[in-house]
């Protein structure tokens, strides 16, 4: 059976989501998608310019790739809903990555407003994928509110620090009934592999690809890492142990006992 | 605690003594720190740190790439009125300068907007002098209403008003406010603002706080370099921006480092800021405030703007005209508020950004008719 990722009604072979922001030119996007095999790409509606003199950013995305519009810039649930509605009206579909951020200095998602936005958008027929600060109870609340997947951040966006919130993400993965997509902070392919080894269903990588000297080459590296991590997870990679140990230090003696019974 | 109180804590601080004690090692540590504090920032803007400007630039570039990507946002200013009751000794709009004052009508604003929009610009910054009689809040409100139909983002750089009036302007469609303190040194502030409403230092200083409370999405601050000793002014700019980020986390705080240039009828700056020190301040601000936007206007010459793109700048104005109604007619010889040094067209600035390996972004906001 093929190992596919199911989000709402959709199925994806690739577990690497990509982004459109931060590139030196949007003309890198088609090559990044090709080299990474990514089938879902996020776009900030605030950057979509239907009246501009430049090519619309959407023109760089092949039709075979699923568009994930995001609500970047929203500070409240109501603003997120408004942005999602504008995106849907512009033909971007029902899928939406919810970003509600009230802390512009650290860019941490506001979970309470995000839960509210998720509920409002699910009620309006959207397929919401909320970006969240990794808090396990909030992840369950998002699931209950109608999230099609949850997207906890690995570490603050742009930090390239990897999975600083590893424990919380592990608990979220363990408890979640919807896919868990680790988003933000993934600065290297090894970080992406680590998230996948832990059992994340997918990862979203933007900054590390977009700001690399060779975005397409870096996209390919991330794609390989995601596949490697996924394969390790599916093959039940053995856990690391704290120290080398005999195979049965406490019960080995049982083999040596000669029962007199 | 207001910023006025915060700034007061440094009123009798011995800046010279602090600068004299800084070693090269202090500078290196401040550059390496993950979360530099206000004294690290002071170290980075010290004369000693000038020896480390390349290291600062390297880190500033890396941090800007990480947080903003290879992106430069473009905007254009639109001067709609130069009526002014202030007597700022350094400004071309000074009420004592005899110039024919002008204010655009609603129709003229619309015409200007259409011309600017043709150049590709999608973010507009509206400017006026300070004259609540000739350009009252209702006039600004009307202008914002017209412009927000044409542009994705409408910002204001107008005279300070009360919080309630700012709310009206936000309601009308304005999403950002730029207000420069001009001078943080109180004594010099009083000297260069001898009359008009602007003579009230404290009201000016608390303006960004009122704007943050009124619901603007972004607030841009800065000192006008040239009026007072530059390092202290840079320090208070950083202190102010950091204070606003902490107190108003939902507002994007950005900074500018405008330098005095010879505007008509004004003397040369008492405390000129040279290019090297400007770059030092810009990179220090980036290290201290990694997420703050940094705006560079066409006051700066082209060769410098081309390089500042790599050193922390995130937003440039382009194709600017600083005369009221300047976009409609070519080759006007009237007195602008300040002289433009980078006279390139929007297309040329756009091309320069591309040549530097960055993406020029014209639209970075989606106007929402939702009250905050």
Outline the structure in words.
With 261 residues, chain A is an alpha/beta fold. Chain A has a single domain, classed as TIM Barrel (Alpha-Beta Barrel). Chain A has nine helices and twelve strands. In chain A, strand 7 and strand 8 form a beta hairpin. In chain A, helix 1 packs parallel to helix 8, helix 3 packs parallel to helix 4 and helix 6 runs parallel beside helix 8. The longest helix of chain A has 20 residues. The N and C termini of chain A lie far apart (51 Å). The mean pLDDT of chain A is 90. With 372 residues, chain B is α/β, with parallel strands linked by helices. Chain B has 15 helices and nine strands. Chain B has an eight-stranded parallel barrel with strand order 1-2-3-4-5-6-7-8, surrounded by four helices. In chain B, strand 3, helix 8 and strand 4 form a beta-alpha-beta unit. Chain B is globular. At the A-B interface, helix 2 of A face helix 5 and strand 9 of B.
Number of helices, counting only DSSP H or I runs of 4 residues or more of chain A = 9
Helix and strand succession of chain A? EEEHEEHEEEHEHEHEHEHHH
Question: In percent terms, what proportion of residues of chain A is strand?
Answer: 15-25%
The CATH homology group name of chain A: Aldolase class I
Which sequence of strands runs across the widest sheet of chain B?
Answer: 1-2-3-4-5-6-7-8
Percent of residues in helices of chain A comes to 25-40%
Would you identify the regions of chain A where 5 or more consecutive residues have pLDDT less than 50? none
How many strands appear in the DSSP assignment of chain A? 12
CATH topology description of chain A: TIM Barrel
Gap from first CA to last CA of chain A: 51 Å
Largest sheet, strands/sense/barrel of chain B = 8 strands, parallel, barrel
Radius of gyration of chain A: 21 Å
Supply Rg of chain B: 20 Å
Oligomer: heterodimer
């Amino acid at each position: 059976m093929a190992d596919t990722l199911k989000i709402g009604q959709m199925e994806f072979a690739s577990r690497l989501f990509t982004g459109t922001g931060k590139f030196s030119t949007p003309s890198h996007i088609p090559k990044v998608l090709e080299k990474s095999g990514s089938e879902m790409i996020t776009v900030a509606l605030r950057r979509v310019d239907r009246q501009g003199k430049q090519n619309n950013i959407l023109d760089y995305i092949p039709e075979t790739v699923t568009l994930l519009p995001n609500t970047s810039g929203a500070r409240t649930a109501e603003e997120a809903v408004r942005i999602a509605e504008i995106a849907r009206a512009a033909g971007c579909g029902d899928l939406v990555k919810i970003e509600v951020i009230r802390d512009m200095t650290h860019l941490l998602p506001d979970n309470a407003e995000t839960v509210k936005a998720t509920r409002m958008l699910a009620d309006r027929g959207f397929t919401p994928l909320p970006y969240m600060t990794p808090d396990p109870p909030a992840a369950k609340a998002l699931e209950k509110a109608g999230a099609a997947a949850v997207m906890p951040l690995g570490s603050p966006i742009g930090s390239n620090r990897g999975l600083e919130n590893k424990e919380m993400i592990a608990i979220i993965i363990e408890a979640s009934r919807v896919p868990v997509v680790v988003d933000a902070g993934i600065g290297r392919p090894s970080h992406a592999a680590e998230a996948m080894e832990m059992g994340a269903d997918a990862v979203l990588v933007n900054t590390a690809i977009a700001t690399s000297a060779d975005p397409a080459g870096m996209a390919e590296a991330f794609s390989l890492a995601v596949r490697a991590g996924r394969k390790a997870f599916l093959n039940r990679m053995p856990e690391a142990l704290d120290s080398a140990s005999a195979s049965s230090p406490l019960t080995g003696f049982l083999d040596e006992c000669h029962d007199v019974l | 605690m207001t910023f006025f109180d915060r700034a007061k804590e440094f009123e009798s601080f011995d800046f010279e003594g602090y600068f004299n004690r800084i070693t090269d090692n202090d500078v290196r540590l401040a550059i390496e720190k993950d979360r530099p504090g206000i004294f690290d920032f002071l170290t980075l803007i010290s004369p000693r740190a000038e020896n480390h400007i390349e290291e600062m630039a390297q880190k500033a570039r890396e941090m800007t790439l990480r947080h903003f990507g290879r992106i430069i946002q473009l905007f254009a200013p639109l001067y709609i009125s130069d009526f002014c009751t202030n007597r700022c000794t350094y400004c071309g709009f000074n009420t004592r300068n005899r110039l024919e004052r002008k204010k655009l009508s609603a129709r003229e604003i619309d015409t200007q907007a259409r011309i600017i929009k043709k150049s590709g610009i999608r973010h507009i910054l509206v400017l006026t002098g300070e004259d609540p009689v000739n350009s009252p809040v209702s006039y600004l409100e009307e202008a914002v209403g017209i412009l927000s139909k044409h542009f994705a983002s409408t910002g204001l750089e107008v005279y300070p008003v009360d919080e309630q009036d700012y709310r009206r302007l936000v309601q009308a469609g304005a999403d950002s406010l730029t207000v420069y303190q001009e001078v943080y040194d109180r004594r010099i502030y009083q000297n260069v603002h001898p009359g008009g409403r602007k003579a009230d230092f404290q009201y000016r200083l608390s303006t960004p706080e009122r704007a943050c409370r009124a619901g603007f999405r972004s607030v841009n601050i800065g000192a006008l370099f040239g009026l007072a000793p530059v390092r202290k002014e840079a320090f208070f700019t950083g202190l102010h921006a950091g204070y606003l980020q902490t107190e108003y986390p939902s507002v994007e705080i950005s900074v500018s480092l405008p330098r005095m240039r010879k505007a008509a009828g004004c003397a040369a700056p008492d405390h000129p800021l040279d290019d090297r020190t400007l770059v030092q301040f810009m990179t220090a601000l980036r290290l201290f405030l990694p997420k703050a936007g940094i705006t560079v206007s066409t006051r700066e010459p082209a060769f410098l703007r081309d390089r500042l793109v790599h050193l922390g700048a995130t937003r440039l104005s382009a194709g600017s005209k600083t005369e009221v109604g300047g976009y409609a007619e070519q080759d006007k010889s009237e007195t602008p508020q300040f002289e433009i040094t980078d006279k390139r067209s929007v297309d040329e600035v756009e091309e320069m950004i591309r040549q530097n390996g960055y993406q020029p972004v014209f639209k970075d906001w989606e106007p929402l008719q939702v009250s905050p």
